[in-house]
Amino acid sequence: MKTFKLADFQLIGEDGLTPVPFEDGLVINQENEENTWLIEIFLKKTDAERFRLADKDEIFRVQAIITKRENDPAYFSVKLVSYTEMDDFATVLFRGKLSGSRNYYAVSLLECLLNQNLQGEELLEAFKEGMKKKLAVRAPRSED
Question: Which domains does the chain have, with CATH numbers?
Answer without folding.
Answer: 2-98 (2.40.10)
